[in-house]
Design goal:
The protein has 29 helices and 19 strands. By secondary structure, it is α+β, with helices and mostly antiparallel strands. The chain has a four-stranded mixed β-sheet with strand order 14-13-15-16, with no helix packed on it. The chain has a three-stranded antiparallel β-sheet with strand order 3-9-10. A three-stranded antiparallel β-sheet has the order 5-4-8. The longest helix is centred in the N-terminal third of the chain and has 34 residues. It binds a DNA duplex (23 and 23 nucleotides) through α7, β16, α14, α17 and α26. Belongs to the type IB topoisomerase family. It is found in: Nucleus.
DNA sequence: GTCATCGACTCAGAAATCTTGAT
DNA sequence: GATCAAGATTTCTGAGTCGATGA
């Protein structure tokens, strides 16, 4: 694991160091340099240290003594912490300000800002340099080296960065407006509002239909999503608990009564049939069922290249497999002699894989009735676990199934990936249930680990997994009231940040030039968290994948630009789930300078922000707003971006979206959604079939263009004078030379003939099947041969056309006129356009996952507002589950709602 | 008082399953 | 209306965040 590199940099930033870095940084725009990036020579900012060496709040020297700096030379991890884990600064500020209404606190904050020379115009500088990325969703893949970086994402991120300038300006204006409005309110009311901010409930409209469409129409008539909403269910919905209409100010108590039926254990292991064996060194071996089960874990996933192709996965599996073998008496050959399994490469799981594949295939190919029966049986077994009673209400349980044993699939280079996840026994499971409620029975012959009655938590059952010692929980479904309330509070907190964002931004811009290293690092980190939506970046252990977030970035994860592209930083690191973040962004000159300073005296594997960690950062953020953490910025920026994108759509009076068709409305929504997904770096792996699917679409386009080409030739036959029409002939030649090459036409002709043959053959076979079923004689083979001559004729005709299209493409319909031909060409044009739009959309979504942002980051009320404003049925953008999850938003939001 | 560890929760992409639409 | 592939949705469980806890 790389060293933390903590405390390697100086505690204070000397003027000499600043000047040295100044000489090193590439020449930038003079105006920009003058724009609020001066070194604060006149304001001596220091880390004040308490007499006993305890860290003190950072204050201007004019107000506090400048003392020993030694503490700043001490790595963070070695430093003494602060009161109750909260740095003194936060404590001090909250001491002095916690009791003051936020609106009043703001006044003092503004006063502080006045003393600085800093201008906030830095925030107006676009994050990335303007790029000639005219097409937001390029169809052609960039030829750059970063083959696994989402190209579309990268290009779109650039355009998003340009928009961010306006988005931030709007945020600034909004924050000021909110505070101005609150200032006008009577003081008593203001205090009350701020105190209960977290508890404000969305207002439900009197007659809102919880699950209906946004515009009040009946739910969509198609699809399963709506099919399973029976009248009975609707009736139940009417009696449903609308928590958003009630006040509940107690955060610690999650429920009063709770009853449930426990958890569902996976079925016992079914040993393989006797003839299905693991092979070692070419010979079949017999294993104890326990070892066979483990071999089966690996054998059944041979097609999962991402796992079995990973040497760590294989090594860990083999290690655990050998342990199980030892414990169970090892492997034996056909004669019952012991086989020493010591070389992974000699293991052959093919037979096991084939067995499980055949099993999967058999399941897939069951008849509809069989599938239905199996599902009914499964549903019946699960029924009692599906719901629980919480405070007398029926609520859905989420993951009531105990995770089955298998191989741990750690993402990326997780050091434990491939290890055996053991079967969870009832003796490991703790049940949480209401006092006096009937405790669910453990499986026969077993006991629960414990039964507790803790109403301050939301889980129903828990156990520890054996790989990382992590706790697993059975919790309520996302559609439950508990999760809904929690979701609502999350978005309200993000909305609360809206009021403070301008001064937070001003403050960190100011701190970017602080003389105190820790402040300057924190400000730079905040800049990244705010502008790039980076995650906080907790410290990670040796036994986890090496992934980072903002605070844990190392020098090796950033590259500062050279003179050609001043003030650009390239980020290249693995984030959550080992998803690569690779992007070059433009930063302000001051941020660039800071990074240069932070790099001094460090190695690539050292921490960039060696004086910062997530608790310190979050403690600082809490000083602005109760409950503010780095994570809130992601929610805020995602929702704010979405809301601004929708405002842009609204502002487009030339092309009113309200009048557009449903498809265009969905596209517009997805386009905005995509911007949020790009901001949050939500990626997905490119589907295996993506390239072939794109090729198919491309072929379809060419096919249609070929049809146009033929029609144009027919037009020449109908009206030979067209040959003198320059524009007509140019179109025709262009189609031939630039779109349809000779080679392509030749191949297409072959495809057409082949297609015709297949069609004839299939029709023939089908007719024969029918005849046989009716007990009649099948058609003779000679009949098929006769019919196939039609394909031969087509082949001859196409060959002639290929040789001399002008002469041999004949008018197919005697009634054809120039006008009819033109109509046909226009129709083909429309169809081509539709396919091309589909291709652009498909390519744009190739590596970007829209779901995560829709599910977790975009305030659902923005979506509901969008649907109501532009008259789009909500089910077009929210699936059934999302409609259930966000019932509170659907029920309480109108078209004028604003984030 | 400090700080590593733990507990409880949210967020995340892959895989599994279901639905839709073209042929 | 049967079949099949593509697309949409749901499920699963690993990976984060962040506050609390206790040595």
């Amino acid at each position: 694991m790389p060293s933390t590199g903590r405390g390697k940099g100086p505690a204070m930033i000397s003027k000499a160091l600043e000047q040295k870095v100044d000489r090193e940084v590439p020449d930038g725009d003079e105006d920009q340099a003058a724009d609020g990036i001066a070194v604060l020579d006149d304001v001596d900012m220091v880390d004040a240290v308490a007499p006993r060496g305890q860290r003190r709040a950072r204050k201007p020297a004019v107000k506090e003594d400048t003392t020993d700096e030694s503490d700043d030379d001490v790595p963070l991890t070695k430093r003494r912490k602060t009161v109750n884990g909260t740095p003194k600064k936060a404590v001090k500020e909250s001491d002095s300000e916690d009791d003051i209404p936020l609106t009043k606190r703001r006044t003092s904050a503004v006063k502080k800002e006045v003393v600085t020379q800093h201008s906030d115009s830095d925030s107006d500088v676009p994050l990335t340099k303007k790029r000639a990325a005219t097409n937001k969703r390029p169809l052609v893949k960039d030829e750059s080296d970063d083959s696994d970086v989402p190209i579309a994402a990268s290009a779109a991120r650039k355009s998003l960065a340009k928009e961010k300038k306006d988005i931030e300006k709007a945020a600034d204006v909004t924050a000021k407006k909110i505070r101005a409005a609150e200032k006008k309110k009577p003081a008593a009311k203001r205090v009350k509002k701020e105190e209960s901010e977290d508890e404000v409930k969305p207002k439900a409209k009197p007659k809102a239909k919880a699950n209906g469409t946004a515009n009040g129409t009946k739910k969509g008539a198609k699809g399963k999503a709506v099919k399973d909403e029976s009248p009975q269910e609707e009736e139940e919905e009417d009696e449903e608990y609308k928590w958003w209409l009630e006040q509940n100010n107690d955060n610690s108590v999650k429920w009063t009564t709770l009853s449930h039926n426990g958890v569902l254990f996976p079925p016992e292991y079914e040993p393989l049939p006797k003839h299905v064996k693991l092979y070692y060194d070419g010979k079949p071996v017999t294993l104890h069922p326990k070892a066979e089960e483990v071999a089966g874990f690996f054998g059944s996933m041979l097609n999962s290249e991402v796992n079995v192709g990973n040497p760590i996965f294989c090594a860990n599996f083999f290690d655990d497999f050998q342990t199980v073998l030892k414990e169970t008496g090892g492997a034996k050959d056909a004669d019952g002699k012991k086989v020493n399994i010591k070389d992974f490469k000699k293991l052959d799981f093919t037979k096991i894989f084939e067995y499980y594949e055949a099993d999967r295939e058999a399941k897939r190919s069951r008849s509809a009735a069989e599938k239905k029966a199996a599902k009914a049986e499964k549903d019946a077994a699960e029924e009692k676990y599906l719901t629980c009673k919480l405070d007398g209400r029926t609520e859905k349980v989420g993951n009531f199934r105990v995770e089955p044993p298998g191989l741990f699939r750690g993402r990326g280079q997780h050091p434990k990936t491939g290890r055996v996840k053991q079967r969870v026994m009832p003796e490991q499971v703790t049940i949480n249930i209401g006092k006096g409620e009937k405790v669910p029975s453990p499986p026969p012959g077993h006991n629960w680990a414990k039964v507790i009655h803790d109403n301050t938590v939301t889980w129903l059952a828990t156990w520890k997994e054996n790989i990382n010692g992590n706790t697993k929980y059975v919790m309520l479904a996302a559609t439950s009231s508990l999760k809904g309330m929690s979701d609502f509070k999350k978005f309200e907190k993000a909305r609360e940040l809206k009021k403070h964002i301008d001064r937070i931004r001003k403050d960190y811009q100011k701190d970017l030039v602080s003389k105190v290293m820790v402040d300057r690092q924190r400000a730079t980190a905040m800049y990244f968290i705010d502008k790039l939506a980076l995650r906080a970046g907790n410290e990670k252990g040796e036994d986890e994948a090496d992934t980072v977030g903002c605070c844990s970035l190392r020098l090796e994860h950033i590259t500062l630009s050279t003179t050609e592209e001043p003030f650009h930083v390239t980020f290249d690191f693995l984030g959550k789930d080992s998803i690569r973040y690779h992007d070059t962004v433009e930063v302000t000159e001051q941020v660039y300078k800071n990074l240069k300073i932070f790099e001094k005296r460090k190695s690539p594997e050292d921490q960039l922000f060696d004086r910062l960690n997530t608790p310190t950062l979050n403690a600082h953020l809490r000083s602005y707003m109760p409950g503010l953490t780095a994570k809130v910025f992601r929610t805020y920026n995602a929702s704010w971006t979405m809301a601004q994108e929708i405002k842009l759509l609204e502002a487009d009076k030339k092309n009113p979206l309200k009048k557009a068709n449903v498809h265009e409305k969905i596209l517009a929504y997805n386009e905005a959604n995509r911007k949020v997904a790009i901001l949050c770096n939500h990626q997905r792996t490119v589907g295996k079939a993506h390239d072939t699917q794109m090729e198919k679409l491309e072929y379809k386009v060419k096919e249609k263009k070929y049809k146009q080409y033929r029609i144009k030739h027919m037009m020449l036959k109908i009206n030979p004078k067209l040959e003198k029409d320059k524009s007509f002939m140019a179109d025709l030649n262009n189609l031939y030379k630039n779109v349809l090459t000779e080679k392509w036409i030749e191949q297409h002709h072959k495809d057409l003939v082949e297609g015709e043959k297949v069609k004839i053959q299939k029709k023939f076979e089908k007719e024969n099947e029918k005849l046989e079923a009716d007990g009649e004689k099948p058609l003779k083979d000679s009949e098929l041969e006769d019919r196939l001559t039609a394909a031969d004729d087509l082949e001859k005709q196409l060959a002639k056309e290929f040789k001399d299209p002008k002469k041999n493409i004949a008018v197919e319909n005697a009634n054809s006129t120039i006008e009819k031909c033109e109509n046909n060409i226009a129709k083909l044009d429309e169809s081509i356009q539709a396919i091309e739009t589909q291709m652009i959309d498909k390519e744009a979504n190739k590596t970007i996952a829209l779901g995560t942002s829709k599910l977790n980051y975009i305030d659902p009320r923005i979506t509901v507002m969008f649907c109501k404003k532009f008259e789009l049925p909500i089910e077009k953008v929210f699936s059934k589950t999302l409609r259930d999850k966000f019932k509170w938003a659907i029920d309480s939001t109108d078209e004028n709602w604003d984030f």
